[in-house]
């Protein structure tokens, strides 16, 4: 009996270990969950990573250099078109305007005085002309000497010269008035350049000068973004960029709001590719301007380039390559079977199947903790 036991006990132990291995290891590693394909729409999108930017960002510059006397807005403020942003010290410009106005007044007085003088001379000329005409007749009748007639004629010539001089003074004064008026307009225009106004409704995203600092002509003081022109600037590989067309619908996921799909539209595809990265820049605009935004914030865009209706869809994670064929593993009774498929379209998450499996196929969900599959391998479900 003892001799039997020394063989039976090890045998029982081996059987027990085998049973444990079969049930706890083999069966577990050979058990796969299955799912069936779904029927529905497949949206094919092109994905890109970019940054918040805008079509219209205005560089507000100083037209005239000088010290900033007053500054009314700060970075992050919203401004309306026509708002006064800052005032630059105009130094002696107002005094020059007042001086020109005084000169204009003087020219006006001179023109008025010359007009009055001309009117008086014209009245005198009427009398002198009458005397000249009368003396001429008397000279013809021999009742007047030549010397007296010559004096009357000289008086007429002299008064005409005085009238001509008065007219010249009037013309000169009028010309000076016009010149001074233009000068005043020019000075006022220059004076206005020391006041800088917002050209648009928008947000100040940058302020590069402070109160009492000195700015040079054409130096940037503010950057203002028009929020209606916000878009995402991103780059797409040339191999897929040809499918992009202006007007295609898209979604934007801001890094600060990763779970919010913001409706958008493809607004521009840049015509020139980057010769180094082999990418093409695109701009995807927001359909509705977000309440808050941050220029240069990272964002992800998905541009919808095609939609397939009533397609047989499977999760993209189930795709495998087996013996140089692309396909999926399916349950064929109690065995695993690799089914090559023809792909109609694909996005990041799903694949539309053109042929190879039906909507009733039982797809095996793969797991790295399970046994590697092979054709005909027994499986549990």
Q: If you had to describe this structure to a student in words, what would you say it looks like?
A:
With 381 residues, the protein is an alpha+beta fold. The protein folds into four domains: 29-45 and 310-378, Beta Barrel (conserved putative lor/sdh protein from methanococcus maripaludis s2 fold); 46-55 and 227-307, Efflux pump adaptor protein, beta barrel domain (Elongation Factor Tu (Ef-tu), domain 3, Beta Barrel), CATH 2.40.30.170; 57-89 and 195-225, RNA polymerase II/Efflux pump adaptor protein, barrel-sandwich hybrid domain (OB fold (Dihydrolipoamide Acetyltransferase, E2P)), CATH 2.40.50; 92-193. It has four helices and 21 strands. Strands 2-11-14-13-12-15 form a six-stranded antiparallel barrel. A four-stranded antiparallel β-sheet has the order 3-10-8-5, with no helix packed on it. A hairpin with a 3-residue loop joins strand 19 and strand 20. The chain is rod-shaped. The mean pLDDT is 89.
Q: What is the 3D form? A: rod-shaped
The overall pLDDT average reads 89
Structural class: alpha+beta
Q: What proportion of the residues form beta strands (DSSP E)?
A: 35-45%
Q: Please provide the count of β strands.
A: 21
The largest sheet is: 6 strands, antiparallel, barrel
Overall number of domains: 4
Number of helices: 4
Kindly state the percentage of residues in helix: 25-40%
Low-confidence stretches: none
H/E series: HEEEEEEHHEEEEEHEEEEEEEEEE
Radius of gyration: 48 Å
Q: For the largest sheet, list the strands in their spatial order.
A: 2-11-14-13-12-15
Give the termini distance in whole angstroms.
Answer: 45 Å
């Amino acid at each position: 009996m003892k001799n039997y036991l020394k063989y039976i006990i090890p045998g029982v132990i081996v059987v027990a270990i085998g049973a444990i291995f079969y049930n706890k290891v083999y069966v577990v590693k050979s058990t796969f969950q299955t799912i069936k394909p779904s029927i529905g729409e497949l949206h094919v999108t092109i994905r890109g990573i970019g940054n918040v930017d805008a079509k219209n960002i205005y560089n507000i510059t100083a037209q005239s250099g000088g010290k900033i006397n007053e500054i009314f807005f700060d970075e992050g403020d919203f401004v309306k078109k026509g708002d006064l942003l800052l005032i630059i010290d105009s130094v002696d410009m107002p005094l020059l305007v007042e001086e020109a106005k005084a000169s204009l007044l003087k020219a006006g007085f001179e023109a008025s005085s010359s007009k009055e003088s001309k009117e008086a001379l014209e009245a005198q000329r009427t009398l002198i002309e009458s005397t000249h005409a009368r003396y001429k007749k008397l000279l013809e009748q021999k009742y007047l000497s030549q010397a007296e007639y010559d004096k009357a004629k000289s008086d007429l010539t002299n008064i005409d010269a005085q009238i001509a001089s008065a007219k010249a003074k009037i013309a000169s004064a009028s010309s000076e008035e016009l010149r001074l008026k233009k000068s005043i307009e020019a000075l006022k225009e220059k004076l206005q350049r020391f006041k800088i106004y917002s050209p648009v409704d928008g947000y100040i995203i940058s302020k590069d000068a402070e109160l009492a600092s000195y700015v040079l002509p054409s130096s940037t003081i503010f950057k203002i973004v028009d929020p209606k022109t916000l878009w995402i600037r991103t780059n797409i590989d040339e191999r897929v960029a040809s499918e992009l067309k202006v007007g295609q619908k898209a979604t934007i996921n801001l890094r600060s709001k990763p779970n919010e799909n913001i409706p958008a539209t493809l607004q521009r595809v840049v015509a020139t590719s980057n010769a180094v990265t082999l990418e093409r820049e695109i701009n995807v605009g927001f359909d509705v301007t977000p309440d808050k935004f941050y220029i240069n914030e990272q964002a992800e865009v998905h541009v919808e380039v095609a939609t397939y209706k009533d397609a047989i869809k499977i999760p993209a994670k189930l795709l495998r390559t087996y013996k140089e064929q692309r396909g999926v593993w399916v349950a064929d009774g109690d065995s695993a079977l690799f089914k090559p498929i023809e792909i109609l379209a694909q996005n990041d998450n799903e694949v539309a199947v053109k042929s190879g499996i039906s909507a009733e196929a039982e797809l095996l969900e793969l797991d790295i903790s399970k046994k590697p599959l092979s054709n005909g391998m027994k499986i549990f479900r």
